[in-house]
Amino acid sequence: MAAAQSFNMRLLAQHQLQGFGGMGEGMGMQLARDGRRILWLAHESAPKNFTGVDVSDPRSPRVVVQTELPHAQMRSNSLDVVGDTLAVAYQTTQRGQKPAGFDLFDVSTPEIPRLISHFDCSGPHSRGVHVLWFVDGETVHMSSGAPDFQPRNPLDDQFYRIVDVRNPSTPAELGRWWLPGTREGDAAPPPQRLERKFDSGFRAHNTNVFPARPDRCYLGYIDGGAMILDIADKSRPALVAHWRHSPPYHGFTHTVLPLHGRNLLVISDESVQDNGADWPKLVWVVDARVETNPVTIATLPAPPYQEFVRRGGRFGAHNLHENLPVPGSWNSEQYVIGTFFNAGVRAYDLLNPYQPKEVAYFVPAAPAGARTGAVQLNDVFVDERRIVYAVDRHIGGLYILEMSI
Q: Is residue 111 part of a domain?
């Protein structure tokens, strides 16, 4: 097994999370009322729901709470925290199962999360919520199924939904949008699918909305590419721009990160097949000066193919630190931090967006007992101290890193 690699990132601590890994795509920082920093983590698989880790001292992380899922046929893949309110997404293994939707918790006492409400998204064609975005304390944006939505193809079961949570005890849907042609009864024809071995579905993934542009949703739509939606009227989202690179690439557009001050979009794919079978999965830099005509100008330098492709597990891009507009989150329009599964966590300088440069990375050694034979870093969050938190998809737990850039 390969040894750990590092450049301008130094490991401060690793926490095995009581032996329960399987970390998803949910990481959020709470600045608690008593002065502690609580990092909330979603689990990608049962039996655990979410974990709260006190990272006030990043060299000595401590689990303060770890909760259970109701049953094994579900996952809490995503979460966000605003103030003392934690939103957690639930997706089931099979359509029609429950609970499928999202919960709101009061975490004013982090050790004792208190359920406020559940928003039900279950239905005969729904697996619930895959990813949610909650940053303003008022609105949850999410990729979700619904009881009244029947996709033409079962892979297309999750679309963009907007939910009002200003009264957290009674969440209410405000609006929705899906790619025309993917729902039964649509007048539009079905979209042309990728070849079968790469077909992951035309469905929403990340649904990012920033206070700097509250009338825009930056939407990753898996095999449908990236979209910018006008949500000034949340009851009627409207398509503004559509960026698509697949085919010839292999789909799974994941995250659309706008750098508003520079009129750039940073768009990540997700690798979903082992041993580079769906390579290349890249992070793209897109010129959005003309919002209706996004133009690709670069990709972030990919990790060395020959070094990682046969190391084990997935190899390629995945999550980005999303410049969450909440206290405790690091924000930068020059640097982009992302996870690349067996190629670790990596940082890039976009000072010249036409020639991005890699400026830091950390690749852990394979965790003991890793079934892939390699680490699979899944998600990343950076706090305002430039402390980097990365989690392993399987058993490696939480890695806490100091970044020197």
A: yes
**Could you report the per-residue pLDDT of 248-292, keeping only the tens digit for each?**
999 999 999 999 999 999 999 999 999 999 999 999 999 999 999
Ranges of H-type helices in 342-392? none
User: Token pair 């401590």 is at which residue?
Assistant: 62
Distance, CA of 357 to CA of 303 (rounded, Å): 12
> Does residue 189 belong to any structural domain of this protein?
no
| Tokens of residue 404, six digits | 């020197």
Residue where the block lists tokens 């999550």: 319
Strands 387-392 and 377-382: antiparallel
What's the token pair of residue 235? 């009851």
Of 403, 257, 285, 278, the closest CA to residue 344 belongs to 403
Nearest to 262 by CA among 349, 187, 176, 334: 334
Task: Kindly state the tokens that stand for 318.
Answer: 């995945």
Distance, in Å, from the CA atom of 332 to the CA atom of 360, rounded to the nearest integer, reads: 15
Question: CATH number of the domain that 223 lies in?
Answer: 2.130.10.10
What are the residue ranges in the chain where pLDDT is below 70?
1
Spatial contact of 218 and 257, defined as CB atoms under 8 Å apart: yes
SS3 content of the chain, % helix, strand, coil (to 5): 5, 45, 50
**H or E, element range at 305:** helix 305-308
Asked if the structure places residue 150 within a domain, the reply is yes
Total domains in the chain come to: 1
Q: Is 317 left (phi over 0), alpha (psi -120 to 50) or beta?
A: beta
Task: Return the structure tokens found at 324.
Answer: 């969450």
- 244 part of a folded domain: yes
pLDDT tens per residue across span 287-344: 999 999 999 999 999 999 999 999 999 999 999 999 999 999 999 999 999 999 999 9
Buried (b) or exposed (e) across 335-372, using 16+ Cβ within 10 A? bbbbbbbbbbbbbbbbeebeebeebbbbbbebbeebeb
| Total number of residues shown for the chain | 405
Task: State the Cα–Cα distance between residues 335 and 396, nearest whole angstrom.
Answer: 26
Q: Which domain holds residue 270?
A: 5-184+197-403
Q: Which of 310, 319, 308, 314 is nearest to 272 (CA)?
A: 314
Query: pTM surpassing 0.85?
Result: yes
Three state DSSP letters for 140-205: EEEEECCCCCCECCHHHCCEEEEEECCCCCCCEEEEEECCCCCECCCCCCCCCCCCHHHCCCCCCC
Give first-to-last CA distance, the chain, whole Å. Answer: 28
E strands in 264-314: 264-269, 283-287, 295-299
Residue type, 234: K
